[in-house]
Structure formats: C-alpha cells, structure tokens
Specification:
The chain has 304 residues and is mostly helical. α4 runs antiparallel to α6, α8 runs parallel beside α10 and α9 packs antiparallel against α10.
Length: 304
C-alpha cells in the first residue's frame, strides 16, 4: 500500500517535462480561444442546425481546455486578436471558410498529440474528439453562397478571360488609358448583362426555382471583376498605358490567388491545380490579344 506522502493529489498539476508543458499550454490557449470563436460564429449563423452544432463543438473545446488546465494549473483568456480575426473572416467569407481554416490548424497538431500521449494519455481522446469535429462540420457546411460557387466561378472566370483579352488588345490598339477604360467599361457592362441573362435562361431551362438568384451571383461576380480590372486604367494617366496593363495583370493574379484559396479551403479542392489552369488561360488569352492589338494597329493603320 503506498504511503500517504507518495499519493498524488488530483487537484495539483501533473509533473511533466518542459517540452510537454509547453505543448499543453499551447493546446490550452488554442482550445480556450477557439471555444469563443465558435460561439461568436454560431451567434451570427441563422440556420438552427448549424448554430446548435457549432455551439456543441464550442462546449467540447471548452471541455478540452479544462482537461489541459488540470495539467498546467493555469487559467487562460482567449486571444482577442484571433477571435476578432476569425469572426471577421466568418462575416466576410462565410462560416464555412472560417471554420475550415481554423480546423486546418488543428489538423497540423496531430503529430504533437501522438508525442504528448506518452506523458498525457488523455491527449489521444482529445485528438479523437477533434477528428469527430471535422466530420460533424462536414455535415453542417450548407451555406447558401457555397451552393452558388459554380455561378461565381462562371462569372469570375469569364470576366477574367474576356476582359484581360479585351483590355490587353485595346492597350496596344489605342495607347490611351482613358479610351481603354471607356471601351472596357462599355464592353464589361454589356458582357455582365449578357452573362447574367444567359445564366438565368440556362437555369430556367433546367427547371431550377432559384434561376434569378443564380443569375445574380454570376452577374455580380462578373461586374466586380470587370471593375477591378479597369481600375488601373482610371488611376494611371493617359501616357502610362503599359503601367496600367502591368497593374491589371497583377490584379488578375491576385484575384486568382484569393478566389482559388477560398475554394481550396471551403471545398477541399487543390489550390495549385486550379490556380495553374485559370492563370494559364487568362494570361494566355491576354498575351494573344496583346499581339492581335499590335497586328491590327500595324496592318490596318489605325491610329487613335
């Protein structure tokens, strides 16, 4: 029978190696913070099923933090910066993107759980809970905006291909930023109306009841993309048309990076593959149109 002096008080922090303690403190801080983040996101989620699941996961995160606290003996407060950052991301990009982005960070910690389990057996139980989180989250990711990703991709991709080609061709043909912007704007608005109406008719033909909403997503995405691409031609003076063209190409790449990263996180798609395909098409069309602009100017003798 162990002596009274050798008995361990369950309320006292366990004796851990310095490496294990540092890892547990990091886990505890993360769990405390994410519990608050999940509650903030749940408060802004309209659908009851999604909200209740997010609150359940928040409670589990808080429970994990309490387990880690028994080992560290410390009380921690949530990281305000992280809470504010993910709350903002959820409002702008939707809770699906915010939650999956946060869960990616937890996925990177799986090896640490294995190592920590040598000193803290409960680490494997917590890891099992974290894996269950991912499956539960997959069941609730039914945001409206993700249902119209196809429409948004259609609008953005068509705008990038058509407008990069149009603006690149006009740049060499006109060599005047104001004329290029005017021509591009007229073309862009006409193409926006054309794309939106085509999407509406296509959805109606398929018997979809949300044809108008699908057309709106396509049209708005197209118009926003057109506006961003024409912006450099409005900012640079008339003589710096090549600077405007270079800036426009940079904006194209930035749009592709942001949008494809969003899709890679929200829908678990390959970022590199999609980015490479879309960038290759858009820049290829721009280069070809640039050459056509030179040819037209030379052989037709057009001088604006």
């Amino acid at each position: 029978m162990p002596s009274e002096a050798s008995q361990t008080n369950p309320n006292e922090p366990a004796q851990l190696s310095s490496a294990a303690l540092r890892q547990i403190l990091a886990f505890q801080q993360n769990e405390v913070t994410e519990a608050v983040v999940y509650r903030r996101i749940a408060a802004c989620t309209k659908e009851e099923g999604n909200r209740s699941t997010l609150l359940r996961i928040a409670d589990e995160e808080a429970r994990h933090a309490e387990i880690w606290q028994r080992y560290t003996g410390r009380t921690m407060k949530p990281e305000r910066g992280k809470v504010a950052r993910y709350s903002l991301i959820a409002r702008v990009f939707g809770f699906t993107f915010a939650v999956k982005l946060m869960e990616r960070g937890e996925a990177k910690a799986q090896v640490s759980y294995e190592e920590l389990a040598r000193e803290v057996p409960e680490a494997l139980d917590i890891r099992a809970d974290e894996e269950a989180h991912e499956h539960a989250l997959l069941d609730i990711l039914d945001e409206e905006r993700l249902g119209y990703v196809g429409s948004m991709v259609l609008g953005m991709n068509d705008a990038l291909v058509e407008m990069t080609g149009t603006l690149a061709g006009l740049t060499l043909a006109m060599q005047n930023t104001r004329l290029i912007a005017l021509s591009g704007l007229i073309t862009g608005i006409a193409a926006t109306l054309s794309m939106a109406s085509s999407e509406y008719l296509s959805s109606k033909t398929e018997g979809r009841s949300d044809a108008l909403k699908s057309a709106a997503y396509t049209g708005v995405t197209y118009l926003v993309t057109v506006t961003l691409l024409i912006l450099p031609y409005l900012l640079f003076d008339e003589a710096h048309y090549l600077w405007a063209l270079g800036t426009m190409i940079c904006i194209v790449l930035l749009i592709l990076v942001v949008f494809n990263y969003y899709l890679s996180v929200a829908q678990d798609l390959s970022f590199k593959k999609r980015f490479g395909q879309m960038a290759g098409i858009s820049l290829g069309v721009a280069a070809l149109s640039f050459v056509i602009g030179i040819v037209v100017k030379m052989f037709l003798g057009v001088d604006v």
